[in-house]
Amino acid sequence: MLGKHVLAIALIGGFLALGWWQISRASAGNTLSWAYAIEWPVFAGFVGFLWYREIREALGFPAVRPAADATDSADAADSPDASGAEPVPTPALPPVLGTRAPKIGSGFRRPVLVPRQPVAAASAAGAADPELDEYNDYLAWLNANPGAKASAYPGRRRGPG
């Protein structure tokens, strides 16, 4: 962790020094250096921003605070009711690579799971499509013959047009 701090400080200092160097070149008559004189401090600011976010994440603060909205009323439904029954705890999601697991009550939301309609049920609901069936047969043949060329497909061939 100390290496990240040293790297951030070195990059910010180096980028600001390069910006100062470009200012001295621009004042000597190199007009292109005016753009670089602005660009290097922007790079330093970007590194500073990333450094700040890394520190906040390491301390366990969320990067973005969720706005209070109607979904907070759903959280109130999770609290114990008048009967005194405790809610069932929600398991924590596995952490994403490079992040820490969210703390319960830290403002993180669970992802919304949307049920999907199975493909078979979707095709049964509509009329039979001969072009789709032909294409699926072609794909099945390609899967069964991985070394074959597409031009060797023995199925129905259509001419141009």
UniProtKB/TrEMBL annotation:
Transmembrane domains' residue ranges: 35-52
UniProt superkingdom: Bacteria
Alphabetic keyword roster: Membrane, Transmembrane, Transmembrane helix
Composition skew (Low complexity), residue ranges: 70-85
UniProt region (Disordered), positions on chain: 70-102
This protein's name: DNA-binding transcriptional regulator of glucitol operon
Native source organism of the sequence: Asanoa ishikariensis
